[in-house]
Amino acid sequence: TAGKPINCKAAVCWGAGEPLKIEEVTVAPPKAHEVRIHILHTGICHTDEYTRSGKDPEGIFPVILGHEGGGIVESVGEGVTNVAPGDHVIPLYTAECRQCKFCKSGKTNLCGSVRATQGKGQMPDGTVRFKVGDKEIFHFMGTSTFSQYTVVADVSVVKITDAAPLDKACLLGCGITTAWGAVSKLQPGIRGSTVAVFGCGCIGLGCIETARLVGASRIIAVDTNPNKESWAKKFGATDFVNPTQLKEGKTIVQELIDLTDGGLDYTFDATGNVNVMRSALEASHKGWGVCTIIGVAPAGAEISTRPFQLVTGRTWRGSAFGGVKGRTELPQLVDDYLNAKIKVDEYVTHHRTLKEINEGFGDMHTGECIRCVVDM
Ligand code: AHE
Ligand code: ZN
Which ligand has the minimum distance to the alpha carbon of residue 94? Predict the structure, then answer.
């Protein structure tokens, strides 16, 4: 098939707020420095729903969503040296070119090489590889994993070991890695510290697990769903607080400050709710507390707090993909999974076929779902 278009099935979102529709799509062959991947499994993440719903200011339609995939390289374009046909790979929505100002800074994982076209739903040359009939379909996050075949830039893909089951390893393409990095890479001082994690979905549980792994002394999970208590404890939380069940008039911030003699050393927002982000900052300890924002907030939403919160030594920060450089760091994380150093299987609560992908989005909205994996 190399060099020829491939016809396959994909879930297409034709417009903001519409359900996905399974279509026969034509996937053009990879151009220079592009890779065509046979996607075998993909997770569904809240960011896919965020863009589908029309809330993403960068949302563009019609589009093939999906950014948490695993697959096998089918063919490569001219000049591709980092992967070859047959390689097991994970597409990367945070590229790593190793040549741009960002990559060379040593300070961030935010590669600039393909970001402009990726945000416009295009390949780096400004065109697209997907068509339904004559109608061009946009790419999403540089990955578009809700298609049986997709094309990505070579800087946006990493080879992993064949030994890793792709129906699990795909989750390292977004949620678990994002949480792992935000906790273990970005907060080197976390050992022995107190931690609060707001939100016990995939990201929150990943933060809890990683905090335990790196030796946090106390890990307080915060969620409004009482069913999340057992999940949080299974992943390593020492305490669980439900903000809707506090004593009359007591705020979650006050509750956490009381529980911890003044506040947490580290807090993490894994909700995307800007009110929660404020609580997370204000529940961190005077003088040294660090609050990390991971969740994606709705378009136009803004965070606020009294500047005094920062003047008195709290830090508000954020990270994308956990600060992880995908090509350099993901293979090791996959090995850590295979060596049982990090959980992955435990996050998969639901499986769906491609035909059932809209039901998979429905699963995500129930408090019972941590991750739904779509078998393509
Ligand atoms: N396009 C949205 C923002 C979406 C967003 O924040 N995306 C995260 C990844 S979410 C993974 O589930 C991210 O890493 N963004 C960095 C980037 O460069 O896109 C908006 O509000 O415009
Ligand atoms: Zn995601």
Answer: 1
